[in-house]
Amino acid sequence: MVPPVLDLGRQPYEPVWRRMLEMRRDRKRGILPDTLLLLEHEPVITVGVQGDGGEPLPEGVPVYHVERGGRATYHGPGQLVGYPIVDLTPRGRDVRRYVRDLEELVIRAISPLGLSGVRVPGKRGVWIDAERKIASIGIAVEEWVAFHGFALNVDLDLRAFDRFHPCGFEGRIMTSVAKELGRPVSIEEVKPGLLAAWKEIFETPA
How far apart are the first and last CA of the chain? Predict the structure, then answer.
């Protein structure tokens, strides 16, 4: 069975965060299957457990300190965010492999658009030419249930990353599907490839 996908459209951060935490608890209790939340966020900065390095964050954008790994990053319209709620016990409780599965999900999702995403040793996420970051990965795992997930830059204003150091990197390394292709790209154009990859990778336990 393919784990269900809930397409939430464009949402502010906090209600989705609260819902994700509730779904994690329900997944642990066995009253919810593995599920993928897909959405775009209103402009927001989230800060993972590694903190912001003491860096001043942009004013005028809500900031949330959350449970996921990593440092500060930006979410906004034109970015496809996925929050898989996945029980890792049937998947061998292998967190590293799960992260690689999420990276593979994004790599396969952008392939039909003619983009070749790659992994870079020591740098989590998906990259183009090993130099430009097109997707960020940040997860949390509690009681062997994973939550949070990935953020794929489809067609968003990349200038938002120039105002701080996303994931500890210079903002100039961030790219998007639209920038790489040199044309506008809608979220809807990316979804079919991502949903096909979700089915291929997560239809059965690893």
Answer: 13
95 CB-contact burial (10 Å; exposed 0-12 / middle 13-18 / buried 19+): middle
Catalytic (active site) residue 167: yes
Backbone phi, psi, residue 50, to 5°: -80, -5
CATH, domain 5-202, list 3.30.930.10, 3.40.640.10, 3.40.50.2300, 2.40.37.10: 3.30.930.10
Q: Provide φ and ψ at 12, rounded to 5°.
A: -65, 160
Let me know how long the chain is. 206
pTM of the model: 0.94
DSSP-derived letter for residue 23 is: H
- In this prediction, residue 163 carries a pLDDT of 77
Q: What is the pLDDT of residues 47-90, one digit of tens each?
A: 988 776 666 777 889 999 999 988 889 999 999 999 999 999 99
Angle, nearest 10°, between helix axes 95-110 and 187-202? 140
Structure tokens at 65: 């300190």
State the catalytic residue, choosing from 167, 174, 178, 197: 167
* Per-residue confidence (pLDDT) for residue 203, from 0 to 100: 83
Strand, coil or helix: what is 86? strand
